Amino acid sequence: MLSQSHRAIVASTVPLLEQGGEALITHFYNTMLAEHPEVRPYFNAAHQASGDQPRALANSVLMYAKNIDRLEAMGPLASQIVSKHVALQIQPAHYDIVGACLIRAIAEVLGPEIATRDVLDAWTAAYGQLAEILIGAEAARYDEQAQAHGGWRGDREFTVVSKTPESAEITSFVLAPSDGGPVMDFKPGQYIGLHIHVDGEELRRNYSLSASPNGSTYRISVKREPGGVVSNHLHDHVQVGSKLQLNAPSGIFTLEAGDRPISFITGGVGVTPALPLLEQALATGRPVTFIQCARNAQVHAFRDTIEAAAQRHPQLSRYYCYDQDDGAGEARPHGVGYLTREQLEAWLPEAEDGVRDVDVYFLGPKPFMRMMRKHLHEAGVPDGQVHFEFFGPAAALQ
Ligand SMILES: Cc1cc2nc3c(=O)[nH]c(=O)nc-3n(C[C@H](O)[C@H](O)[C@H](O)COP(=O)(O)OP(=O)(O)OC[C@H]3O[C@@H](n4cnc5c(N)ncnc54)[C@H](O)[C@@H]3O)c2cc1C
Ligand code: HEM
Predict the structure, then answer these.
(1) Quick check: pTM over 0.90?
(2) Across the chain, what does the average pLDDT equal?
């Protein structure tokens, strides 16, 4: 139970965490991964190496400490964490490991003068409260997934029923449950968890669902990542008939109800969740703009899908932007070079009195996302109407 004095101590450690939060969390991860090999498969080595995962956790702990007296302010962050945890099958027992390592890291990094017994007790109580909130929300989500029509709990075996190249580096896999049963509907924009062994190593990755829900199969579309363990394995060794273990769909990058025009802006493989989102958006009858960026025509996936949607739906405007136009293929892009603010202003619905009343959804590599965030702000799109997802741990875009 978190007492008033615990709250006061936790709140007073905020400046300390702001200065040293990241170092603390890096220390915590190193200890945890070394001493608890059983949690290693859950953590992506590339995200650890880039520092993105320690940073995401540090930021959330900090935000929690800042809002200790009004936890509802954590709202959107908490549901984002829960979605990621659920897709990776994080369980209550894991929280004990994380909690013990976190408190030990606080003690070791701060030293005995700052990390007194009272400080450690306060943080133990505070962590316990946060863990309880997340565990409760995750249990509710696991129950929902298990009880949904075509839903399940934990791993479920799927069989690859088709494998289709979409560009020089993106390949789609259509997956049907091996038990022949239905699959639960998902919200466009959501992703599944893939639980896989590659060369004896247990790994977990998330992949967005790239085709609309149909009750019987899921489609994922995977970019071959240079040096990437799972994506190369899927491209090279997973064929029609191969079996894969999936965890049920999760995620909060979903379409908001309303009547504003909608715009999607994607970079590279970030196009995958936008495909079912586009179908859903078009079905509402709202005007839709689809802006797709790719390095060149060779790696431009799903152009035919977007063109076919534009034939069926006159309210869809689409624009393609290539880093370089290599002249390949019959169709030329609408823009060459990185997407600029001027292009966005020309392609998005017009602004009135400096405000552009449009709901925007974007996803791509992090530098692309930072640039879009800035352009959209400068182009007059209100921050509350801008939605984005990360293909890795969340990061600051400003
Ligand atoms: C919500 C969500 C949705 C996603 N949807 C999609 C999707 O639709 N399609 C898609 O293709 N991907 C998607 N991803 C990304 C996907 O989950 C994987 O991260 C991606 O396929 C790369 O995995 P990998 O195992 O091939 O690469 P990894 O083995 O994780 O490696 C990634 C990169 O990091 C480098 N690296 C690996 N280990 C280290 C290390 N220790 N130090 C330094 N560098 C290292 C590798 O060389 C490589 O360049 C999504 C991710 C999330 C979180
Ligand atoms: C109070 C405790 C916890 C907090 C505050 C927390 C916070 C976070 C945050 C902020 C993210 C990033 C979310 C995003 O990218 O959108 C995340 C992802 C993740 N968390 Fe937690 N977490 C907690 C407990 C745990 C536990 C107990 C485990 C399991 C051992 C765990 C494993 C993971 C993994 C594997 C990811 C994804 C990492 C990646 O993308 O590489 N977390 N968590």
Answers:
(1) yes
(2) 92
